[in-house]
Amino acid sequence: MSYIPYNKSLKEYSKKLRNNSTLAEVLLWEELKSKKTGYTFNRQKPLLNYIVDFYCKSLNLVIEVDGDSHNHKYDLDLKRQKELEAYGLKFLRFDDLEVKRDINNVVRTIEIWIENNK
Question: What is the pTM of this model?
Fold first, then answer.
């Protein structure tokens, strides 16, 4: 699917999230925005009634960094993921600490996923 609808009222909130990113999100964004992967990613992208951390339209890939805001929200995260997967999206999830402590491995994992799924 080439277009995934989104709730337009989330645009302002997604901008706020971009301006108040976590350290892990900033670290990963520095890697993704430089296009080291060869693909363009958006951050804090509204999709359906949700905002995902990172999104690559050409790969149908969502990357989530699960930090404190995801604690005790496993069921909600799973519901959101299932709804987005119904549109053909794939998910990669990384723990906040993993991104902070081993960004090179996180980027390598993304690169391997891209190589196996492009």
Answer: 0.91
Tell me the pLDDT tens digit for each residue of 8-41. 999 999 999 999 999 999 999 999 998 888 999 9
Question: Angle at the Cα of 40 (from 51 to 105), degrees rounded to 5?
Answer: 85
Q: How far apart (Å, rounded) are the C-alpha atoms in residues 2 and 34?
A: 24
Cα–Cα distances in Å, from 86 out to 36, 51, 56, 106?
28, 16, 16, 25
Instruction: Provide the residue count of the chain.
Output: 118
C-alpha neighbours within 13 Å on the C-beta side of residue 102: 8
E strands of the chain, at which residues?
42-47, 50-56, 61-66, 90-95
Taking the C-alpha atoms of residue 49 and residue 9, their distance in angstroms, rounded to an integer, is 9
- Taking only the tens place, the pLDDT of each residue in 89-115 is 999 999 999 999 999 999 999 999 999
Do residues 21 and 51 lie in contact, with contact meaning Cβ atoms separated by under 8 Å?
Answer: no
